Amino acid sequence: MKRNKWGVLSVATAAAALMASTAAGASLAGASVLPARHARPAKAFGVNATGTVTFWARAATKAVPDALVKEFNATHPHLKIVLHLTQGNEATSELATAIRAGTAPDLVGLNDINVPAFAKEGALLNITKYVNALPYKSSLSPGHLKLATIGKQYYGVPYLADLSVLWYNPKLFKQAGISGPPKTFAAMLQDAKKITALGHGDYGLSFAGDCQGCLGFTMLPSIWASGQHLVNGPLGKQTANIAHNAPLKALLGDYHQIWAGKMAPHADLAQNGSTWGDDFAKGNIGMLPGDYGFVTTYLKSMPKSEFADAPLPGENGGPGSTFDGGDDFVIPAGASNPSGAWEVVQWFLAKSQQEQYPALGDTPVRGDILTPSFLAKYPYDAVALRTLKYGSVEYTLAYNELFNAPGSPWYKMFSEAVYDGNLSGALSSGQASFESTLASADS
Amino acid sequence: MAGGAIAGTEARRHHGVAGERVLRRVPRTRRERLEARAGWTLVSPAIVMVAVFILFPLGFCVYISLTNWPLIGPYHFIGFANYTALAHNSVFLQSIVFTLEYTAIVTVPILVFGYLLAVFVRSNRPGASIFRTCVFLPYIVGLTTLSFLAEVELQPGYGTVNVVLSKLHLASINTVWVQNANLALVAICVLVVWLASGFTMMLLLAGMQGIPEQLYESADVDGATWWEKERMVTIPLLRRSIALSLIISVVGSILAFNQFYIITDGGPGTSTVSLVMEIYETFNTAMHVGAASAMAVVLIIVVGLITFVQFRILRADDV
Q: What is the pTM of this model?
């Protein structure tokens, strides 16, 4: 969702990485044949596999694979993972190039919003029967799984979750006489007013106003929590739901009031994500729709009395929602060791590994991990994990064009509605530009 | 008699030239054949490199531009559809206009500041070498790093640029540079001129150091002023260096990407999307490799044409 500029800047670096990974893949092909004395007959797909699994994970979410791959290799003498980290926004082009060249890895941790584009073209292995056989399938992140679904077939399975939450400052809330985090849009607006009224440079709410990806990551869940999506329909026949989307209109309207009423820092206008969340750490921001991953910063730099998280609220209450961001596991159709890859997947999704995710800065993708002991150990992640089952995504091939690209229809609409105050005009032009982008993607 | 001699010389010249050409093409003796073979052997690695890393990718790029090649999935030939679609692509057309506008703005200041800096540091006055190093340092640090620094220093509220300008009462401390297309362009142009002037200074300085000192001494004897010496001696003899500087500067500006991607991300809206950035977004975000390749071919043609025209203009009198 968030754009990684560092990773984007060197095409040469990406090309070098691609060549290196290709070379690594070639060398691994030779290394995959174990000596006869170590070889064991494979019993079934994903069971007692042997050889090597080349695993491409995103550098942006490398903490989990960095730690767990070492553990896997230490405990699995007959199956080894060779980890390759893909840089920044080059992950998709790197994978596509490898698939075209016939040097696809065995397993990929792919940004979940990019999975439909690969699945639709038949580039990924259909793993429906294996996913259906997972005993904990019903507790897997629904948004991650939805993005891995074409029709009723699964082409991926949730890997790790990068979720959005509402960070709030309990100390400021108490000073303003507010009992708890908002559960409706109206409450969020009122809370912002009360906290701003405290003075002393306190602001009710802060948002990354120049980061289209961040805004989608934190605002869309509130619309989903209100029962609406911006894109509806199956791939190929998708329609835009903008002009008559009541929760969207209400949310943009509230953000405009917050902006026009100076309830947000002026610097938000230029916040492009590079220092997103840093202002909240200073203790004078009441609410910050943000990333759960900020917790590592806040735990180090803030008193615990000054930060807590809650689900992003819906228009009229309810359990709230979250953006089911993060990665899906996918196995490319040309993988040389798919059985080994599926064994690795199952190992990552086991409880003992999932429980390690929070300490590594990510959220598990299994809701059944949320036990009283987990809650006590990771109270901030428990909020995110509890919301996982209410989380969602915009299921479309054009997510990047609609939301993340410079001057995307989403950001134009946000900018016109929130900064310029032209709400009806923004929704009207947003409807048209969403429709034309979807039509282009569907064609 | 004289006329006959001249005619004979001309005839020999023509005959000789023609003869040499024939000799070059068809080595007659064993030694000549060996030399020709050795020559081909020596240049063949370069020919192979050019063919593999330049000509083949270029040809492949043109081929892709004639297909609907997606990032992943099947493709088919669609003729010039990608090119005709570009004519209706408002963001692409806007990016061309913006890139040319940016190029026009930065080219002259880079050359003028580079020239003045070169004039300043060519003397052996105390501190010249330190000054030269300081001016060239931004180029060594690199545009990517400087762009990230600029992104932070342009932040409203606490960025150094706003702090300094507000102390001087020239701007508000809350100025949001990246949310105003004109302000963002000004900030980026200042950054680029600062960085590129040092490089231009080095190119021109190398040229200046090749100008014989006697020419300046002769000008001094004739009573020429500083400006007359620059105009009559330095600039004419720097013609090739200036041409090189301009071509590097113009091509670099047309290929601008990093500074816009990092500082403005093309915003506000799409007002600072450069041509290369639009190609990148079409390829990586929209995943339309065919369309992006068509844009790249157009870019190659534009750069080629501009460079060709520059060469013709700057070398018109250089016989």
A: 0.78
